[in-house]
Amino acid sequence: MHVVVLGGGYAGLTLTRELEKRVPTDADIELTLVNDSPDHLVQHELHRVLRRPELANAITVSLPAVLDRATVRVARVEAIDRERRTVRLSDGTLPYDIAAVCLGARTATHGIAGVRKHATPFKRLADAFAVRARAREALREHDDTETPFVVCGAGLSGIQVAGELAALAREGHGSNADATLSITLIEQFDTVAPQFDSSFQRAVTDTLESAGVTVRTGTAVTRVTPSAVGLESGEELPAECVVWTGGIRGTDALDRERPPVGPALELDERTFVLGDAARVTDAEGEAVPASAQSAMQAARALAPTIARLVSDERDVSDEHAQSRGTESVSASVSANFAFDSPGWVVSVGDEAVAQVGSNVLTGRGARLLKTGVRLRYLAAIGAADRAAVLAREEVGRRLPFEFDRDP
């Protein structure tokens, strides 16, 4: 039997590690993780590379190093044939008996003119390095006192990018002491962090503005040019660099869609989808936000279902297995995912804003909570060495570890 996990992000890595614990170690049971990179990127820390490029290695985790039994196949997923139970990869075809689609999401451009050509998404290390290079060039070479940078989309990712760019501008990094950056954060809805409570939104807005970020909400983008962002009002907002964090879409392997699924996370009786790859409604009937914590919770909820399916298939006769091969997973086996948020925390440069229950934290309490989230996640996936690097960087000590890459 072949169990395949497609994607090595938060959902895929968590699910694979859970399956390593739960799925029997029989020689005829194979577990494969397919990812387009041999590494897992801790994406909620990607913004930190804008100021601290040396941290790129600390937020990049080798998948084989944190997995015990699973085979890691480095390839791009191009299509999924659920009828034949095969996956078309960039390097061949992979059959499966059970598959979990954890491919994450891609940046949505919403058909807005110029976004794909003139704006930089913020999903990969290459994106962070590209934005950092533009900022350093502006600080080093431009005679203007302020070079305009615009971040489009004020979800958590856009908030963190804007805050980090503002902090980078304060630190300088250029030979021209008068050079700086002006950072504008644009959101089409009426508030930043539109999916969150109003008290959290107010605290985030206040923290951004205190950091020197200009926040413009209720502002829709109609086009992006090499030197400006066009707004629905007709205004042309000057922009030396545009960072686009304005929403997500499905991957090409899922026809650019995020399929809707319920708490069982089923596409069919042997194919599941979770994390940002899907639009999930949980057992409470609530829409689940696309986030790292929801992806990991879904993976932990699904792992027992897949392990039970593997055990059932192993225990029944071949004839019985064929007779039930097209049946749906029984209610007693199906996952029943209900998202339970422990809270939210977002970085704004060296500051942070957190929400725990109905309480909103700023200052030292929020910063400590953010640090704890960073370190706990890395430790949980078996990357204690990376956690140690981040911990030492947090307290301003010299990084003691050396890695192979030179960012």
What does this protein structure show overall?
The protein folds into 2 domains: 2-36 and 75-105 and 250-323, 3-Layer(bba) Sandwich (FAD/NAD(P)-binding domain), CATH 3.50.50.60; 115-248 and 343-394, FAD/NAD(P)-binding domain, CATH 3.50.50. It is globular. The chain is built from 10 helices and 26 strands. The protein has a 6-stranded mixed sheet, covered by helices on one side. Strands 11-18-12-13-14 form a 5-stranded parallel sheet. It has a 3-stranded antiparallel sheet with strand order 6-7-8, with no helix packed on it. The chain has helices at 10-22, 63-66, 115-118, 125-141, 156-171, 198-210, 292-315, 318-323, 363-380, 384-394; strands at 2-6, 30-35, 39-41, 60-62, 71-74, 77-81, 86-89, 92-95, 98-101, 106-107, 120-121, 146-152, 180-186, 213-216, 221-224, 228-231, 236-238, 241-244, 248-249, 260-261, 266-268, 271-273, 279-280, 344-348, 351-356, 359-362. With 407 residues, it is of the alpha/beta class.
What are the defining features of this structure?
FAD/NAD(P)-binding domain; 5-stranded parallel β-sheet; 10 helices; 26 strands; disordered C terminus
Task: Compose a concise summary of this entry.
This is FAD-dependent pyridine nucleotide-disulfide oxidoreductase. By secondary structure, the protein is of the alpha/beta class.
SSE layout and pairings?
Blueprint: E1 2-6, H1 10-22, E2 30-35, E3 39-41, E4 60-62, H2 63-66, E5 71-74, E6 77-81, E7 86-89, E8 92-95, E9 98-101, E10 106-107, H3 115-118, E11 120-121, H4 125-141, E12 146-152, H5 156-171, E13 180-186, H6 198-210, E14 213-216, E15 221-224, E16 228-231, E17 236-238, E18 241-244, E19 248-249, E20 260-261, E21 266-268, E22 271-273, E23 279-280, H7 292-315, H8 318-323, E24 344-348, E25 351-356, E26 359-362, H9 363-380, H10 384-394
Parallel strand pairs: 1-2, 1-9, 2-5, 9-22, 11-18, 12-13, 12-18, 13-14, 20-23
Antiparallel strand pairs: 3-4, 6-7, 7-8, 10-19, 15-16, 16-17, 21-22, 24-25, 25-26
